[in-house]
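Re: beginner question about structure tokens

> Can someone show what the tokenized structure looks like for a real chain? I only ever see the sequence side.

Sure, here's an example I had lying around. Input first:
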Amino acid sequence: MYRNEHPNPQFKRDFYICLNGLWEFGKGKCVNPQSPCLESVIEVPFCPEAPLSGIGDTGYITDCVYSRLINLSREDLSERLVLHFGAVDYIAEVYVNGRLAVKHTGGYTAFEADITPFAVEGENRITVAVHDDIRENIPSGKQSKEPEPHGCFYTRTTGIWQTVWLEKTPQNYIKRVKFYPDPENNCVRAEVFAEGCAQTKINVFFEGRLVGCAEGETEYRRIFEIPLAETHLWEVGNGRLYDAEIIFGNDRVCSYFGLRTITYDGKKFKLNGKSVFQRLVLDQGYYEDGIYTAKEAEQFVKDIKLSMSLGFNGARLHQKVFEQRYLYESDKAGYLVWGEFPSWGMKYDSIDALGTFISQWSEVIEQYFNHPSIVIWCPLNEVWEDLENVKRIRDIRFVEAAYSATKAIDGTRPCIDTSGGYHGKFTDIFDFHNYHLSKKTLKFVEDIRKSDTLTMDKTYPPAAAQESVYYDGKLPIIASEYGGMAYSCGGKSWGYHSFDSEDDFLAEYLGMTKSYLSCDKISGFCYTQLYDVEQEQNGLFFYDRGRKFSEKTLKQIAECNRLAAAIEK
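And the corresponding structure tokens:
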């Protein structure tokens, strides 16, 4: 069995049964959930397109069915049984012994089903019916709508792609907890949401030492303020996480939080009051043998270490909601990340998909709220004209609603309404994407430095859009995508620019990167990208994370990335 670790250290109970492994599998609609009679088997949690699934079918799979048997004892049935799914793309209907237990829409967030009313002692059949057609008006990120991957679009992901597990809770139980760190006052506020009423106790530990405690009765929801005897800040390169134990009656959940503040002071991004330049790299979250899903959780650690070895202090987790385990490793490493949504695939020329987007994006924010590594929310990316028809221009209300909803759910983090230009009326950061080479990049940066103007392509909307949103010279600026250079790649490889000479590649990298670092009005950059993905071969490493460049070149890239930024001085 692959991926048998607990999938979410942010919310962990002692009772945990991993249901990854072999499931029965078949393509097509579910006819009989109690006796589906499926023709093959699949290795969960890998999608059927992935080699690790044992299927490896990369054609369109619009409907499929999973099924397996589990045995439950009388003791298992003595309390509330909950079946969890980390993520299923896109619409999932979950049946237990032929009866519908839950239906969930959205391919990137976790959901659960209380299966107590449907379970019996002995053998129980779980069946999951999935519908997923990315040619519909749904969020799908970088998944290719064409039969084959192309450009910056990759192999599709269908069905279960994160861990499935079973846990047991009392009838009165903890639903979730949100942490609000307050390092200036040496405390943390914990908001506990629960089912029912019970005495609650919260213990906070640092490296095993009890450093804080609060208790009292909770009925459905209560906020506890917990003074901390020791103050250890979450910083770049050092997570310093606090462990938390939440006890509600007979229920017990283990969690953690980081003590840090995020603010903007003028154009400076500040972490705990200290100016920090965001040295980011684009991470697509794809894996050669698992597509959306890493073979082992250790891969997350390796990717973060690869990034940090090159002098990056964080990443844009791009057009995908990454697994909770990845964010856990980011939290531990003190690694800055942007929380994004796979917004490509939706139609922005009308607000028809707005309800779909808001409901799914709000789940992301709530489920990932406690991760200290997430420093910026980015709900949309490059919302210009339609990807398939440039005459269909976005509806500005979509962008403005995305920003407003984000800030309403989480007012503690900055939000970029849509990364890459064509910003709406509301955004906390005015970022831009620039895939020109160093000569033009230097000119763009000089325009910012001298006159607070952004002159690169795709910064302002076309006149037809009737959205005259221009940079006001006051908002923080981030070069949130640049580079995209492919090196020594032939055949059907794709990149924004191609180089056969390693020296030429390095010169361009250093030129572009130093221009951003030298400008005291730019608070961060994000290089495209950390590793190749399929035909998009503009990574600093190969798709298997193997080394693409010489040690000398990698050392110079790292030294450049670590240079002090003008805005930090």
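Each token stands for a local structural state, so reading them left to right follows the chain. The mean pLDDT is 95.
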